[in-house]
Predict the 3D structure of the following.
Amino acid sequence: MKTIEDIKARELIKECVFKTSRSSGAGGQNVNKVESKVELWFNISESEKLTEEEKMILLYKLHKKLEKETTIHLQEQTDRTQLKNKELLKDKFYKLILQGFKVSKPRKPTKVSKAVKAKRLDNKKAKSETKQLRRKIT
């Protein structure tokens, strides 16, 4: 079942700019003549499909992955074909957008149990006794 965020992420691909170039790595002579590396550029602030609130959420949550403060830049060159790299790149983009929309649960603080406290004190007493026995007898 597709969520609203998933559908929205798939609509955003229409606003992305794709560029191709020659990639390094496996491919033999194919590397020298075929542009199999694919790059994706997506400007969050200029998106028409996102609301202002969604833009703010994405900019806040993905701030470490942005270039020039508002642009997502991804690239893929693992496969030998441009088409496969483009599909892999789209999947990477979808996951990144869904990660940005994901709402994390608030952390519930927990207390240290009495048993754990008692065990820690027992260990401290045992260490203390061991060190007492190591002292010189006067």
Notes: The first strand starts at residue 17 and ends at 21. The helical segments are 4-12, 30-33, 52-61, 82-101, 114-134. The CA atoms of residues 22 and 33 lie 8 Å apart. The mean pLDDT is 84.
